[in-house]
Amino acid sequence: MSILTFDDVMLSFDGVRALDGVSFSVDPGELFAVIGPNGAGKTSIFNVLSGVYRPQRGTVRFDGVSLLGRRPHQIARLGVARTFQNIELFSNLTVLDNLMLGRHHHHPYGVLAAFGWIGKARRSELANRHAVEEIVDFLELAQWRRHPVGLLPYGVQKRVELGRALAAEPKLLLLDEPVAGMNQEETEDMARFILDIRDDLGLPMVMVEHDMGLVMDLADRIMVIDFGRPIRTGTPTEVATDPDVIRAYLGEEHRVES
């Protein structure tokens, strides 16, 4: 069974359709990519999944539960985590502190218990710190663990952003342009970590990305959208050789080697 179904979704703003009958599904352990020109509706899909937008038509179900009408924090508690195209970290806090923020809904105690740091609060804090240290090792962040995020290289900050999403222990990970602005070495590092998340953690992912080489190398299936409408969904090879995709997204003369 699919862990996520996005069925016949229509989203419009003042008569302009951002999404027009978009449908796709994501299977357990699958890396599903969404590509398309700027303004095609990719971010709108993520905002619907995150509870920022509510579509006028369609259904969105995650792990058997409808996401429509739920607030972002409720969807996060269900097990959906996301990264952002523009880094959304606390630059004055350390890597460890930023990762701990991803554990916020794993704190089963109140403010008073937190001040006292005894009993359940202490046990929970230690367990959460252990979980964060595992992410530090997984993403090879140990040398920067106590550094303020704002002083780190851009590629490392993007890795911390990914780590914060993983800290929530999601059942589904949304990656919004994970290699945007990275150089070749940073992109290769991020690609390796994304594959590790899929292969070692078995975590299904939905990825929006403009780097076609990365998408073709990593994705199990790809959906191409243009002006809010799906053009083609299939394997990287099927998508790369589809004439409609080439016309709408890659250009008539461009071909992707597969």
TrEMBL record:
GO MF annotation terms: ATP binding; ATP hydrolysis activity
Keyword DNA damage appears in the UniProt entry: no
Source species, domain of life: Bacteria
Gene3D superfamilies: P-loop containing nucleotide triphosphate hydrolases
Keywords linked to the UniProt accession: ATP-binding, Nucleotide-binding, Transport
Domain ABC transporter: residue ranges: 4-252
GO terms under cellular component: plasma membrane
Cited Pfam families: ABC_tran (PF00005), BCA_ABC_TP_C (PF12399)
Annotated PANTHER family: ABC TRANSPORTER ATP-BINDING PROTEIN (PTHR45772:SF1), CONSERVED COMPONENT OF ABC TRANSPORTER FOR NATURAL AMINO ACIDS-RELATED (PTHR45772)
Name of the protein in its database record: ABC transporter ATP-binding protein
Organism the protein comes from: Kribbella antibiotica
